[in-house]
Amino acid sequence: MKFKPGDRVAFLNEKGGGIVTKIIDEQIVLVSIEDGFEIPYSVGDLLKVGEGAADMTGRIAEEQEEVNPDLSPLYSVPNKLGQMPPGAYLAIVPSDQDKPLQSPLDFFLVNHTDFEMLFGLYLNRSGSFHGVEYGFIESDSKLFLREVERTQIEDWVNGLVQMVFFGPGKTVPVLPASASIVFKPVKIYKEESFAFEGLLRKKAMLVQLALISDQGIKTGAEVVTEENIKLLNEKISTGTRKQEPVKKTESFLDKHKVDDRIAEVDLHITELVDNIKGMSNVDMLKIQMDYFRRCMEQAELEKMIKVIFIHGVGNGTLKNEILRYLRNTPGIEFYDAPYARYGMGATEVFFYRNK
User: What is the pLDDT of residue 57?
Assistant: First the structure.
């Protein structure tokens, strides 16, 4: 649309409008707003209005306020073969599609279902959950959450999304879902992780959160039968008996836990023994490695998700022995722990087969 000085315009992407005062070129014009300031605008962001411009500008602003700019529909085709099954997903999309391994990552929450979805998002920062986002996503839509630098990816690993699905009108309800965000951080550095996804029409890595088929459809009240009554009586009879208290088996790993499935172990020798007088370096290394191996074995038994081992910098002998052990251990991934918290002196181990 062509403009000329004096034209009254409304802003398409924000509230308000103004008067065109100068044509810079075919794409840019100066607009004088209420405060008297002249601001350059792209002609694609303006709408020419005539008499009653204030009313039209107000209506456009109201419509814009009702639309969430971060929410957009999926490119979903009914019954298309090969399409992702109905459910909720986290989509990790390179901001620059031509540089998937160098650009920041855009995180979207994808609702690929016929239900509207309420959600709460919790990130896992140093073993503690932090609520960071909540909201509503229409059916077959995606919501932009935020742009994430690759150095911040650890916050998202083992994060949590809680979801409630709602179908307006006559429908069959499904159960709410609570899902961990589970993926290997190393994947964001592999180009093959970002395949073209038809739902987004972009290269993306999708992390499955919940499938509708797994959400236990509620079918109504259970039919009362003699068998059900018999089972109910057995439960009542069992419940009236005095139950012996279940003793919790203590583990030496308990004192290192920051939550039920994450532990932080300090392997400095002064943390493991009371007195190191007379010990050689070999003796101290043996004690540290024995303790490290016990922690690894106990973490497997207790199905831990992550253990951070603080080994310090020193001459690197302890770290090298730990890395040699980890390289020969299946079912794990290991990385340098976050520098901001541990410096160069810690390694974190993820037990992926325990999830």
Answer: 47
